[in-house]
Write a structure and sequence with these properties.
This protein is of the alpha+beta class. It folds into 2 domains: 2-240, Orthogonal Bundle (Endonuclease III, domain 1), CATH 1.10.340; 252-387, Nucleoside Triphosphate Pyrophosphohydrolase. It has helices spanning 2-30, 57-67, 72-85, 89-94, 97-104, 111-123, 132-136, 143-154, 163-172, 183-193, 199-212, 231-235, 295-307, 366-387; strands spanning 252-261, 267-271, 282-283, 286-288, 310-323, 328-340, 350-354. Strands 4-1-6-5 form a 4-stranded mixed β-sheet, with helices on both faces. Strand 5 and strand 6 form a beta hairpin. The termini are far apart. Bound molecules: iron/sulfur cluster. Iron/sulfur cluster (SF4) binds next to helix 9 and helix 12. Iron/sulfur cluster binds at residues 168, 171-172, 213-214, 219, 221, 224, 226-227, 230, 232-233, 238.
């Protein structure tokens, strides 16, 4: 295997100047070099920067963290809103964590928001880092994000290796193993290909190729500048790469959720613990259904165990499925009437009663946002039926 890897590496190094040149030439015409798509990559006067010009690190740092695990089209409106509300590192450092999470609501992988907020506390007291080590010392920044920030901001000659780049390189070489098992080799390929005179442009071109041409399913090989050298294309079925380890089916769980209403018409929400999935986000309380348990019993039990309250479980409000990267959940949500017990945060950071119209002041994960919409619809229908 080592012999094969070094032969692959030699082949790629020999072709690197030609591949690099053809990729940047393709990008000049077809890349996403558009202020409407990547505003953080443009100077204040609306120009793409010349090699010797630097860009504002703040906007690029925020964009790069948002782009981890998330596509450009999804990130763009979030980034614009963020830059209006939190336009500087000082504004981010001074904001509360809930304000920051509100800006992040719906983007997923919520620990990224907390880490940005943590990093801002450090960055407001120092100059922007000028090295990989300086950036990776910050929370939530790995090697590829750091390299992407430095090459974008300062045109530093640093290779990148995100999921898109791994896919393109795995296909280019028809690599026989999952990229994650050969990380060092893939980094060496990205480094060999990097245009030392235009690293900013080259890295943007590589990302654009992965996002728009060499896509996960059905790559558009006829439009690809690397087609003539691509081993996966020559093999006739590029979809066979990257090779993956056989994946296990995702575990499935049913979660009973209670939207508990008190006599004042307020609903009960709790804030998840900081550590773990969706850390620090607010949600309606609930928990896993046990084998053989009716969902109404699940909800009553979970609210007793986690909040020390007694409720009467009423009609179903909504049922919805939601997939995370490591599990699939079905939420079955019932309206509940609060009967007894002062709510206590036995398994959360805090609990509070909130008027339904004030729920938008709290950051909720995506599945809970759909529950809120169902609740608001239900209350509106209820009001209309009382009026008629
Ligand atoms: S030829 Fe096809 S598979 Fe190969 S790098 Fe280009 S788009 Fe990807």
């Amino acid at each position: 295997m080592r012999q094969r890897s070094s032969a692959e590496h030699r082949d790629l190094c020999a072709l690197a100047p030609e591949l690099s040149e053809s990729l940047v030439a393709w990008w000049e015409v077809h890349g996403r070099k558009d202020p409407a798509l990547k505003p953080w990559m443009f100077r204040a006067d609306g120009r793409w920067p010349a090699p010797e010009e630097a860009l504002d690190p703040y906007g690029i740092w925020i964009a790069e963290v948002m782009l981890q695990q998330t596509q450009l089209a999804v990130v763009l409106p979030y980034w614009r809103r963020w830059m209006e509300v939190l336009p500087t590192v000082e504004a981010l450092a001074a904001a509360s964590l809930d304000q920051v999470r509100l800006q992040w609501q719906g983007l997923g992988y919520y620990s990224r928001a907390r880490r940005l907020h943590d990093a801002a506390q450090t960055l407001e007291t120092q100059r922007w880092p000028r090295s990989l080590e300086g950036w990776t010392a910050l929370p939530g920044i790995g090697r590829t994000t750091a390299a992407s920030i430095l090459s974008s901001v300062f045109n530093d000659p640093l290779p990148i290796l995100d999921g898109n780049v791994k896919r393109v390189l795995a296909r280019l070489k028809a690599h026989p193993r999952p990229p994650a098992r050969d990380d060092a080799l893939f980094w060496s390929w990205s480094e060999a290909l990097l245009d030392p005179l235009r690293p900013r442009d080259f890295n943007q071109a590589l990302m654009d190729l992965g996002a728009t041409v060499c896509t996960p399913r059905q790559p558009s090989c006829t439009l690809c500048p690397w087609r003539l050298h691509c081993v996966a294309y020559a093999a006739g079925d590029p979809n066979r790469w990257p090779v993956t380890d056989a994946s296990k089916p995702l575990p499935f769980q049913v979660i009973g959720v209670g939207v508990v209403v008190n006599a004042a018409g307020e609903v009960l929400i709790d804030q998840r613990l900081e550590e773990g999935l969706l850390g620090g986000m607010w949600e309606f309380p609930g928990g896993k259904q046990e084998v053989g348990e009716a969902i109404e019993a699940t909800i009553a039990r979970e609210l007793r165990e986690e909040l020390a309250i007694e409720v009467q479980v009423g009609e179903q409000l909504i049922a919805l499925d939601h997939a995370y990267s490591h599990k699939k959940l079905r939420f079955v949500v019932h309206l509940c009437r609060w009967i007894a017990g002062e709510p206590k945060p036995l398994a959360s950071q805090q609990v509070c009663w909130v008027k339904p119209q004030s729920l938008s002041d709290y950051p909720f994960p995506a599945a809970n946002a759909r529950m809120i919409a169902a609740l608001i619809d239900h209350l509106r229908a209820d009001t209309l039926s009382q009026l008629s």
